[in-house]
Amino acid sequence: MKLNLDQEKPIFIQIAEGIEDGILTGAFPEESQIPSITEFSVNYKINPATALKGINLLVDEAIIFKKRGVGMFVAQGAVSKLQKKRQDQFYNNYISRLVEEAKRLGITSDEIIAMIERGFVQ
């Protein structure tokens, strides 16, 4: 995981998204332990409260859970929850805008599909 301290996106969100990416790629399998808050703060030279805030976002979404005295673990079903969350974000951030612009330009859905397929071939 890499943090960009110059980016406008808050560090705690970058921590949460980095853990999400690790879960989606299999670096943190379901029911496995993730690094501790101390490890995050030492490795990335950030305040432990910042790391905790990012992790708590995922706890609130039931992506990870705390075992008291042991650490934080990836929840069962986290991958499917994250895939659904990211698919919804993808639709809202990209597809809906693409469709709006296509309508303004008079591009049909078949033409959009052909353009997307062309992009996958390249």
From TrEMBL:
<dbReference type="InterPro" id="IPR036388">
    <property type="entry name" value="WH-like_DNA-bd_sf"/>
</dbReference>
<dbReference type="InterPro" id="IPR000524">
    <property type="entry name" value="Tscrpt_reg_HTH_GntR"/>
</dbReference>
<keyword id="KW-0804">Transcription</keyword>
<feature type="domain" description="HTH gntR-type">
    <location>
        <begin position="9"/>
        <end position="77"/>
    </location>
</feature>
<dbReference type="GO" id="GO:0003700">
    <property type="term" value="F:DNA-binding transcription factor activity"/>
</dbReference>
<protein>
    <submittedName>
        <fullName>GntR family transcriptional regulator</fullName>
    </submittedName>
</protein>
<dbReference type="Pfam" id="PF00392">
    <property type="entry name" value="GntR"/>
</dbReference>
<keyword id="KW-0805">Transcription regulation</keyword>
<dbReference type="InterPro" id="IPR036390">
    <property type="entry name" value="WH_DNA-bd_sf"/>
</dbReference>
<keyword id="KW-0238">DNA-binding</keyword>
<dbReference type="GO" id="GO:0003677">
    <property type="term" value="F:DNA binding"/>
</dbReference>
